[in-house]
Design brief:
Layout (H helix, E strand, L loop, with lengths): L1 H11 L4 H7 L3 H4 L25 H13 L8 E5 L2 E8 L3 H11 L6 E8 L3 H44 L2 H7 L3 H26 L3 H21 L1 H16 L7 E4 L2 E8 L3 E5 L5 E5 H6 L2 E3 L5 E11 L4 H14 L10 E7 L3 E11 L5 H18 L18 H10 L25 H12 L14
Helix pairs in contact: 1-2, 6-8, 7-8, 8-9, 12-13
C-alpha cells in the first residue's frame, strides 16, 4: 500500500507541497512507539467507546459516529485492525486531515493511526465551503444592518456637534487671542468629538477592540509620516510660534536674513514680502523663525552715515567740524541726536571721514536724506578749500631703466593740481519726502487678496 500512497503524494505535489505532505502517510503513525499511547500519554482527555471499548468494532463505530457529526469529515471511512486505525477518504479543507487524525488518537484503545485522507481537488466541493462561509457572513451583515445604521447615525451626530463647536469662533477667540491658535484648537475639538462618536459606535457594534488596533496602527503610521514630513512639521510649528510672537506688522520695512522688503502678510506656511523693487518674495516660516530679523519701522528715528575723503595735507578736525555743522543746518536732520563725524582711516593720499546724522522716517525718506546730505557736505568742504583728492597711480614704463626714470622724476616733478574754485553750498530745500510707492502697493495687495493673514495689529510686537 505504501508505494501507492507515495505516488498519490507526488501527484498532489504538483498542486502544492503542503498538500502532498498532508497526504503522505506518516511513518510515525504506523509505528506504535511513535504514536501517543492510548492511555492518554499526549495529555488530552480520552473518549470512551461504550460497553466494549477494547474491541476494534467498537472503536470503528465510535469514530464513524464522531466524524458524521463534524462538518467536512462526514465521508471519512474508518477501519480498525488490532487497535490500528486506518482513515481514508477526501476532505475539502487541508486542516481536516490532521483534525481527523487527532480525534482518532484520543479514542481509548487506539494503538496507532494510519492517515490516508487526501484533499479533494474538485472545484465544486472546494468552492462550496467558501460560498457557505460567504453566505454566513452576508447573513450576519444583514442581521447587523440596524446596528450599523444606528452606529452611522451616532458618528454623524457627533461629527455635526464637533463641527458646530469648531464654528463657534467667538468661543475660541476668548480662549486664545491668536487667530491661528484659535483655529487649531477648534479643529482639535472637532476631531476629538468625532473620535468619541466613533468609540461609542464601535462599542455598540461590539468592535471596541478594533479601535485599539486602529489607533495603534495609526500611531506607528503617524510616527513614520512624521519623520518623512519633518520639514513640513517644522514649518507648521514655526508658523504657530510666529503667530504668537508677532515679530512685525504689515507694511513694516524688514530685513530677514539677507532678504529685504516690506511685509505683506504672514500665512500658515510662509511670510510674504514685497521687495524694494516691487516683487513678491515668499519665505518659508521655518527660515523666518530661525533668521535674524531687522525691523527698520519699529523705531521712527534712523541714522544714516557716509564717508568722504579730504586731502592728506588738510586738517581732518576742521573738516569734521565743518561737515558736522553743515549737517546740522539741514532741515531734515534731527538735532537730537546731534549730527557728528569721526576719522575713519588715513589712506595713502587722503583722509577718510565718516559723517553721521539722524532723521525721522515718518517725515523723511532715508535714501533721499542720505543723498542730499552727501551732496551738501561735499560742496561745503570744497567751498571751504578742502580738497577731495582722487586716487593717484604712478606708472612705470619698461622703455627706460629705473635710474633714468628716477632722474626724470627728480628733474621734472609732477605739478600739483590746482585747487578748484570755491562753490556755493548746496541748497537746503531738496525733496526728501517719504517715498510711499512700495507701501501703497502693499496696502493694495492686502486689500485685494483674500489669503489668510496671521498678523494681528491688536497684539504687541515681541
Amino acid at each position: 500500500m505504501k508505494p501507492i500512497f507515495i505516488v498519490v503524494a507526488l501527484a498532489l505535489g504538483l498542486t502544492g507541497a503542503p498538500l502532498a505532505a498532508q497526504a503522505l502517510p506518516s511513518l510515525a503513525d504506523s509505528n506504535p512507539r511513535a504514536s501517543p499511547a492510548a492511555d492518554g500519554g499526549d495529555g488530552t482527555a480520552e473518549i470512551a467507546t461504550g460497553a466494549t471499548p477494547d474491541t476494534d468494532s467498537a472503536i470503528a463505530e465510535r469514530l464513524r459516529g464522531i466524524y458524521r457529526e463534524l462538518d467536512g469529515l462526514e465521508t471519512t471511512r474508518v477501519t480498525v485492525d488490532s487497535g490500528v486505525v486506518s482513515l481514508s477518504g477526501t476532505v475539502a479543507d487541508p486542516k481536516d486531515v490532521e483534525r481527523a487524525r487527532q480525534i482518532a488518537l484520543r479514542v481509548k484503545g487506539v494503538v496507532a493511526v494510519q492517515n490516508n485522507i487526501v484533499r479533494d481537488s474538485e472545484l465544486s466541493r472546494n468552492l462550496a465551503p467558501v460560498m457557505g462561509r460567504l453566505n454566513e457572513r452576508l447573513q450576519q451583515i444583514i442581521q447587523l444592518l440596524p446596528l450599523l445604521a444606528v452606529a452611522l447615525v451616532i458618528i454623524l451626530l457627533f461629527w455635526f456637534i464637533g463641527s458646530a463647536l469648531a464654528r463657534a469662533k467667538f468661543l475660541w477667540a476668548r480662549l486664545s487671542p491668536n487667530n491661528f491658535l484659535a483655529d487649531l484648537v477648534a479643529t482639535s475639538v472637532r476631531l476629538l468629538v468625532t473620535l468619541v462618536g466613533l468609540i461609542v459606535a464601535l462599542d455598540l457594534l461590539g468592535a471596541s477592540t478594533l479601535l485599539g488596533a486602529i489607533l495603534g496602527s495609526a500611531g506607528v503610521i503617524g510616527l513614520a509620516i512624521g519623520f518623512a514630513v519633518k520639514d513640513t512639521v517644522d514649518n507648521y510649528v514655526s508658523s504657530v510660534m510666529l503667530s504668537i510672537r508677532q515679530p512685525f506688522r504689515a507694511n513694516d520695512h524688514v530685513v530677514i536674513g539677507d532678504r529685504e522688503g516690506r511685509v505683506i502678510r504672514l500665512t500658515s506656511r510662509a511670510t510674504i514680502l514685497m521687495t524694494l523693487d516691487g516683487n513678491h518674495l515668499r519665505i518659508p516660516n521655518s527660515s523666518v523663525f530661525k533668521a535674524d530679523i531687522l525691523n527698520y519701522t519699529r523705531n521712527p528715528d534712523r541714522r544714516f552715515d557716509f564717508v568722504l575723503g579730504v586731502d592728506a595735507g588738510d586738517d581732518p578736525g576742521e573738516a569734521m567740524a565743518v561737515g558736522s555743522e553743515r549737517l546740522g543746518e539741514l532741515p531734515f536732520v534731527l538735532g537730537d541726536p546731534a549730527p557728528g563725524a569721526r576719522l575713519e582711516e588715513v589712506g595713502d593720499s587722503s583722509i577718510l571721514l565718516r559723517f553721521i546724522g539722524w532723521i525721522d522716517q515718518r517725515e523723511t525718506d532715508w535714501f533721499k536724506a542720505r543723498s542730499a546730505a552727501i551732496r551738501a557736505v561735499k560742496m561745503t568742504l570744497e567751498a571751504r578749500g578742502f580738497g577731495l583728492p582722487e586716487p593717484i597711480y604712478r606708472l612705470r614704463f619698461d622703455s627706460g631703466s629705473p635710474l633714468e626714470i628716477a632722474r626724470s622724476e627728480r628733474k621734472s616733478p609732477a605739478p600739483r593740481p590746482k585747487a578748484k574754485a570755491p562753490q556755493p553750498p548746496a541748497p537746503d530745500h531738496q525733496d526728501v519726502s517719504v517715498e510711499t510707492d512700495i507701501a501703497d502697493k502693499v496696502q493694495e495687495e492686502r486689500a485685494t487678496s483674500r489669503e489668510e493673514d496671521m498678523l494681528d495689529h491688536r497684539r504687541p510686537i515681541e
